Task: inverse folding
């Protein structure tokens, strides 16, 4: 089903870490809709899959097609464990990004993004996109180039202002060196600007393959941002407009900071998007957040949208990367009417509100949260800051309190209620780190939108005996195909 613009009418959301993995995106794209892989810390995801023995051989099959064979060899030498590691041995960690990452980390990141997109595109000619968070900015140039090497059709960026992305993508398509401005806490106007630099020729000299420029979709929560981006010398190719009910990170309310009795941010009419103004911009847009039903899709098309982005319904389908145990638990909650999603203003180290499904045994469980030992060994959400001796340090309000406050000078009140999303989201996708000292695995953290109407309807119309509906079922349901 295509929209009246000829574009896909359904975009499958780029959810979590490896929840929107290549099997889900592949299944959606085979149906002609936009399948999207999550681009968040794919270097860690691929390294852990290899250490689990690469079940099915999928990563190794994709690495055989990576254009720089020597890089593939180095990745396999560093991380592949034939037969998989022992379950009580921790994963070998990937080095964390800094403003000047070493070549091995650059290579791993480019290769990981290539692998995920290659597998998502394998065996069909449907469209595939990749989703990044602007808040996780240092890996972006390396990640995007890897996805482009695999022929990604769309790059999608949210959780921040993506104004630098269209120009950077165009330069990467020409195999040019690129820079991306880095926001550093404590810098003043008298300090030199800090940039992330990436030169594709560092990977393989002058022997670089030709890559096509993907379309760029900016995730926005206001018409003001969309209008500003549309005025850029290189504007986005379209927008995804996320309402506050969408899963994952949400934009803060535009009005004064007000919370309800549970501490959730309160949104009002100032957060409504004027769709008439959006139509006037003249670029295609998709609506997200409580549009994951046939009625939602028809409403969006009637309002002038090209279609909808749907996350929650896809998150609980057979092909999603969410562990089967978590799917079963939450689908059971949906069936008996007890599912609860809270918008937590404190949990994410980014400071953005983050929607969390309340699941016993996960980080949403207060006992689990309080008993988890703080550790920051992945560092994707660390923020660069200017140190007292004018260097660049990195800190995260979810890291150990002494490190954040005493050593790095962070405000201790910023650490209250913060959760380690990096470790939690990997656990949600079945890739938890094992903590040898405590003899436990990292607990998961589950995010989803607040509207489960689509999940409920899909479980009711499911025809086979399997525990979950399929990605194809989601698309048929949204398109109004009878069960």
Result:
């Amino acid at each position: 089903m295509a929209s009246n613009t000829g574009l896909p009418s359904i975009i499958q959301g780029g959810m979590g870490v490896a929840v929107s993995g290549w099997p889900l995106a592949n299944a959606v794209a085979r149906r002609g809709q936009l399948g999207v892989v999550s681009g968040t810390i794919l270097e860690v995801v691929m390294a852990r899959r290899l250490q689990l023995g690469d079940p099915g051989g999928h990563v190794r099959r994709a690495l055989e097609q990576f254009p720089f064979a020597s890089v593939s060899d180095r990745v396999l030498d560093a991380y592949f464990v034939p037969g998989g590691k022992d379950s009580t041995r921790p994963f070998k960690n990937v080095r964390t990004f800094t403003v000047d990452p070493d070549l091995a980390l650059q290579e791993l990141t480019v290769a990981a993004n290539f692998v995920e997109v290659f597998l998502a595109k394998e065996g069909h000619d449907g469209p595939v996109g990749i989703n990044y968070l602007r808040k996780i900015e240092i890996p972006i140039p390396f990640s995007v180039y890897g996805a482009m090497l695999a022929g990604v059709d769309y790059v999608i960026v949210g959780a921040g202002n993506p104004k630098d992305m269209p120009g950077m993508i165009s330069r990467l398509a020409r195999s040019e060196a690129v820079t991306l401005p880095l926001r550093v806490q404590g810098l003043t106007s008298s300090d030199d600007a800090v940039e992330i630099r990436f030169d594709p020729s560092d990977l393989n000299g002058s022997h670089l393959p030709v890559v096509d420029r993907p379309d760029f979709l900016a995730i926005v929560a206001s018409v003001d941002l969309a209008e500003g981006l549309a005025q850029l010398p290189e504007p986005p190719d379209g927008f995804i407009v996320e309402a506050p009910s969408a899963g994952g990170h949400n934009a803060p309310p535009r009005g004064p900071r007000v919370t309800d009795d549970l501490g959730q941010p309160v949104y009002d009419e100032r957060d409504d998007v004027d769709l008439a103004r959006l139509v006037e911009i003249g670029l295609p847009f998709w609506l997200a957040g409580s549009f994951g039903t046939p009625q939602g899709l028809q409403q969006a098309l009637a309002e002038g949208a090209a279609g909808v982005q749907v996350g929650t319904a896809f998150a609980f389908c057979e092909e999603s990367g969410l562990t089967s145990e978590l799917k079963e638990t939450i689908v059971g909650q949906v069936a008996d009417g007890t599912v609860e999603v809270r918008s937590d203003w404190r949990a994410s180290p980014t400071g953005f509100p983050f929607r969390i499904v309340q699941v016993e045994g996960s980080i949403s469980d207060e006992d689990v949260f309080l008993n988890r030992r703080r550790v920051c060994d992945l560092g994707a959400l660390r923020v660069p800051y200017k140190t007292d001796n004018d260097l660049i340090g990195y800190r995260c309000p979810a890291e150990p309190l002494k490190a954040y406050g005493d050593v790095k000078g962070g405000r201790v009140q910023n650490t209250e209620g913060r959760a380690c999303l990096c470790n939690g989201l990997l656990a949600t996708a079945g890739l938890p780190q094992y903590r040898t000292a405590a003899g436990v695995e990292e607990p998961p953290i589950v995010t989803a939108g607040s509207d489960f109407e689509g999940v409920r309807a899909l479980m009711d119309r499911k025809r086979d005996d399997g525990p979950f509906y399929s990605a194809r079922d989601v698309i048929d349901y949204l398109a109004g195909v009878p069960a």
Observations:
- The CA atoms of residues 386 and 392 lie 5 Å apart.
